[in-house]
Amino acid sequence: MRLENLNLIHFKNFEKAEITLNKSLNIILGDNGSGKTNLLDAIYLLSLTKSSRSTHESQNILHGKPFFTVQGTFIKDEKPTLVQGTYQRGKKKIFKAGKNEYEKLSEHIGLFPVVMIAPDDTEMIQGGSELRRKFFDGIIAQMDGVFLDHLLQYSHLLRQRNSLLRSHDGRRGLDAALLNTYDEQLLPLSLSISTKRNEFLQTYLPHFKVNYEALAEGKELVSIKFDTEVLDDDFQSRFRANRDRDLMLQRTELGAHRDDFIFESDRFPVKKFGSQGQQKSFLIALKLSMFDQIKEQKGSAPILLLDDIFDKLDDHRILQIKSLVNSGRFEQIFITDARPERSRRIFESGFEILVKDGKIVSGD
Question: Helices in the chain by DSSP H: which ranges?
Fold first, then answer.
């Protein structure tokens, strides 16, 4: 699968941009802040209906403009599909594939998968459990629509339950019947979500170990462990018994939203003991394994987006990345770099896209 072209109107710092893309390696060059990453983000949005960086749609609109539009043509199984996402301030985001507008954005997810590696992804290793859940849930959601539906239902019910818990201040009566209704729906969803995460990790882990070994030449023993209470035999009874504590804390303390994935190297947490290079290699292996898993499941390769991939990598690890890119394993790749001489030294060939101040100045 590949993206044939990309057209932007009022997206981030681009007034307007139109470019025909190379079907294999695209190298996006330009100074920091020029808009290189915004091009990758536009591709990410076309695939997953949302930005990889912005939390609010209005942040994707060029300053002073009322809307943005991102459009591109995906080629999948030799068939073109025009995909378009548009957002106008104060209105609902509209997404189309061909002439058909989606009723639910989730219907689009997984049709045209992408995998993105970005510098701030290291927060997934250094930060809290929510980021790690989000990463793995994002992979599973691109392959399993039922899981995505369950995840969306769970998030909605969890917000409602927490809102009900916050509304009880000890003076007003608790709507116990409503709370019971939420619990009876949350418990099976929690079990379904955590079970899927655990099953997925078993198939994902072999890919991860192979990819990390290729980057680190087998010098370190790495592992990922799934940490959950949901799959314990007594979870449901503990969940119900925890109601008084939930009322005191005004939040739901137990459930699939507390699951975590523990990253280890030589049996020690990478978060605490891994060097910058080790953490970067761990992250790259996580994302490459995401690529492998989706390709295996979908039967076609996702688009690979590499944002500032060479930052904080030593020469040896850069050579390993070069070897991976040139291996023929990937179909279409986009790489950003603020140092053109470095990319030109690493890659003997590639379609160069030069970006300056939110404009495509050339693509040659």
Answer: 36-48, 123-126, 129-143, 145-167, 176-216, 235-241, 243-249, 270-273, 276-298, 315-325, 340-346
Q: Are the C-beta atoms of 297 and 199 separated by less than 8 Å?
A: no
Rg (CA), the chain: 22
CA distance 39 to 44: 9
Decide: 49 and 93 in contact? Cβ < 8 Å: yes
Check: CB of residue 352 under 8 Å from CB of residue 364. Answer: yes
Rounding to the nearest 10 degrees, give the CA dihedral for residues 108, 111, 112, 118: 70
**CA dihedral of 13, 14, 15, 21, whole degrees rounded to 10:** 180
Query: Do residues 335 and 36 make contact, with C-beta atoms less than 8 angstroms apart?
Result: no
Task: Encode pLDDT of 86-145 as tens digits.
Answer: 999 999 999 999 989 999 999 999 999 999 988 778 889 999 999 999 999 999 999 999
Distances (CA, A) of 207 to 3, 36, 203: 26, 30, 8
* Beta bridge partners of residue 307, listed in sequence order: 336
Highest mean pLDDT among 65-74, 120-129, 333-342: 65-74
Evaluated on CA atoms 59, 63, 69, 73, the torsion sign reads: negative
Angle, CA 123 vertex, CA 106 and CA 139 arms, to 5°: 30
Q: How far apart are CA 125 and CA 111, in angstroms?
A: 28
As a whole number of angstroms, the distance between CA 138 and CA 287 comes to 11
Any idea which residue has 């891994």 for tokens?
Answer: 274
pLDDT in tens, 207-257: 999 989 888 766 788 999 999 999 999 999 999 999 999 999 999 999 999
Q: What is the 3-state secondary structure (H, E, C) of 135-146?
A: HHHHHHHHHCHH
